[in-house]
Amino acid sequence: MEKINPVLVPQRKLFDGSFMPAIGMGTFGSDRFTAEQVSNAVAGAIEVGYRMFDCAAVYGNEDLIGKVFQQAFDKGTVKREELFITTKVWNNMHGQGDVLLSCAKSLRDLRLNYIDLFFIHWPFANYHAPGCDGDARNPDSTPFSVDAFMATWRQCERLVDMGLVKYIGMSSMTIPKLKAVLPLCRIKPAAIEMELHPSFQQQALFDYILAHDIQPIGFCPIGSPTRPDRDKTPDDVVDIQMPEVVEIAKAHGVHPAVICIKWAAQRGQTPIPFSVYENEYVSNLKCVTEDPLTQAEMESIRLADKNCRLIKGQVFLWPGANDWHDLWDEDGTITK
Ligand SMILES: NC(=O)c1ccc[n+]([C@@H]2O[C@H](COP(=O)([O-])OP(=O)(O)OC[C@H]3O[C@@H](n4cnc5c(N)ncnc54)[C@H](OP(=O)(O)O)[C@@H]3O)[C@@H](O)[C@H]2O)c1
């Protein structure tokens, strides 16, 4: 097994001067890969040199990943403080008390006594069953509410106060939502997860987040070719087939997926690519330590943006909403 020295992996500076790795491994099996496959990949990834793992309660595999962490600590492969582990509260656990319960369950499942970074997974408390169809709707769903979101954020702040969590973060936010909630935060988010890949660069939101000294973490960095079928539409761009990406991949002698990761890390977000295959997750980590893209290649990918959102979130829509665009405040105001 090829190993990459974690010291060579670039780091991101958080608002308090601490650091986190500039690349992590995703752990969402996308309803295609079993919890065993994902946790085996985490075990392999720790050996290879990954030090950041993006987990979530709703991924349904934290108990098996926790066993892997425990084994790695017991074997002395890695120390707890060398890992940067994130998890997220799911939409059915927002509100006054359930955030603490969700964190407690993740801590127990992951076999940890603190989480490095704890996210509100989606800004809506709108629940849908795991694995449901893309047309599924919950009649109890409601539009974004600043008050409801802040009630959940206050619980996240309590987790920091209690020492259970080092940093807190948000995910799938928009500029209008951030404008509304950031001034209200007692403890600011250290990072925000957002969809980022060559065909969906979200430049305005990316710039806004960095300007607030928050780290953007990019999910679906390869364009999520194995995402659940409910998240696929015929118009979706396939990042690893984009001519610009394919051409640069040929020049570097690597798979186009690797170019997506290089571009992400060099641009300044922290990509969290997923793979259960050793050759793929080795390439994804190794590529940020060598053979950078040229300025011209970075520019070619910048110009190739297609504003193509893949994770549209339509299952979170509320009664009366038009379509998935309503989730993303595209006219500059929070959609009600
Ligand atoms: N905060 C949120 O709401 C949110 C939403 C979505 C995802 N996420 C996080 O982001 C992570 C990554 O997103 P994702 O899993 O959707 O998509 P992704 O990382 O963009 O794509 C993963 C797929 O890309 C392929 N791949 C990976 N490395 C490769 C390589 N070196 N060469 C060729 N193909 C490669 C694999 O497919 P093949 O099997 O075809 O090789 C793999 O299944 C998730 O696991 C999760 O942790 C968070």
The N- and C-terminal alpha carbons lie at a distance of 52 Å
As a percent range, the share of helical residues equals: 25-40%
Q: Biggest sheet: strands, sense, closure?
A: 8 strands, parallel
* Mean of residue pLDDT values: 96
Total number of beta strands: 10
Helix/strand class? alpha/beta
Q: What's the overall geometry?
A: globular
The percentage of residues in β strands lies in: 5-15%
Spatial strand sequence of the major β-sheet: 3-4-5-6-7-8-9-10
How would you name the oligomeric state of the polypeptide chains in this document?
A: single chain
The small molecules bound here are: NADP nicotinamide-adenine-dinucleotide phosphate
Radius of gyration: 19 Å
Number of helices: 10
Order of helices and strands: EEEHEHEHEHEHEHEHHEHH
Instruction: Return residue spans where pLDDT drops below 50 for at least 5 consecutive residues.
Output: none
Set out the fold topology.
Layout: E1 11-13, E2 19-21, E3 25-26, H1 35-48, E4 52-54, H2 62-75, E5 84-89, H3 98-110, E6 115-120, H4 146-161, E7 165-171, H5 175-181, E8 191-195, H6 203-211, E9 215-219, H7 243-252, H8 256-267, E10 270-271, H9 278-286, H10 295-303
Parallel strand pairs: 3-4, 4-5, 5-6, 6-7, 7-8, 8-9, 9-10
Antiparallel strand pairs: 1-2
Helix pairs in contact: 1-2, 2-3, 7-8
Bound molecules: NADP nicotinamide-adenine-dinucleotide phosphate (NAP).
Residues 26-28, 30, 54, 121, 171-172, 193, 219-227, 255, 257-258, 272-275, 280, 283-284, 311 line the site of NADP nicotinamide-adenine-dinucleotide phosphate (NAP).
